[in-house]
Amino acid sequence: MKELTLKEIQEDVFQILLTFDQFCKNNDLTYRLAGGTLLGAIRHKGFIPWDDDMDFAMFREDYDKLCEIAPRYFTEPYFFQNVYTDKKYVHGHAQIRNSYTTGILSVEERQNKEFNQGIFIDLFVLENVSNDVQVVEKQRMNCDVLKQFIVETTDGREFEWPEDFEIPEELKENLSTDNCWKYIDDMFRSVKEKDADKVAPLNFIFDTEKRIRDRHMYDETIWMDFEYLKMPVPAGYDAYLTNRYGDYMTPQNVSNTHGGVIFDTEMDYKEYLSKLKCNE
């Protein structure tokens, strides 16, 4: 495998962003920088020097429209990946992949995952977080258990349902992974804006502390430098970043959420995995 510089990886990721950005402009979709990409824009006017991916967030209405039309737009080498376009994919957020490259999470390298594992950008949906704590906790339980069922079923393992968990009525007749994902999506859609002061990417990770935020920080968008582009940033970025990272203007070289990634910009992930299997 070719030894890559971080800059080479960032350039491939940035090319995916350019395609995504044009797609959103063509289809009147609103997105904003999120996570480490937002931090990079504020502190470095581009990539955090040691970062290797990009994160974006959309409200549910735009995200649903994205999921409806993106599979027809992103053609080879690009692939719009979510749980409906890639049946073996088990993460609750979407990604856009370059299928001619390799971007495999280190923790998944030897797990024989069968979904597209090219270099990617992450697309998160901002869900309404109900003001009713009981609703939130019920969602948490449903989300955690159903996702674990999906993962183990997709991997061909038998799942043991927790004794205190009642399978939702809507799933009892057809407990397919597709139906479980649809149930989770509809569960989050059911919370309306008027009943939620806060938003969070709950379908990605049910973290209501570091990732929950006041919805009004997104009321206005400002455009800030990211490499050679102007990119959309929530006007309330200071509260966002302070809650997530603390003293965010002081650099700390910490790992991102997904951990290490195995990259190759010239070999596609299928070839990489095939060679890995031959060497075992």
Question: How would you describe the overall organization of this protein?
Answer:
With 280 residues, the protein is of the alpha+beta class. Helices cover 35% and strands 19% of the residues. The strands form three sheets. Strands 1, 2, 3, 4, 6, 7 and 8 form a seven-stranded mixed beta sheet that branches. A two-stranded antiparallel ribbon has the order 5-11. A two-stranded antiparallel ribbon has the order 9-10. Strand 9 (221-226) and strand 10 form a beta hairpin. Helix 4 packs antiparallel against helix 5. The radius of gyration is 19 Å and the shape is globular. The two termini are 16 Å apart. The mean pLDDT is 93.
Per the principal axes of the C-alpha atoms, what is the gross shape? globular
Largest sheet: 7 strands, mixed
Q: Average pLDDT, to the nearest integer? A: 93
Terminal-residue CA separation: 16 Å
Structural category is alpha+beta
Beta-strand residue percentage: 15-25%
How many strands appear in the DSSP assignment?
Answer: 11
Query: What is the radius of gyration computed over CA atoms, rounded to a whole number of angstroms?
Result: 19 Å
Poorly predicted residue ranges: none
Order of helices and strands: HEHEHEEEEHHEEEEHEH
Tally of helical runs? 7
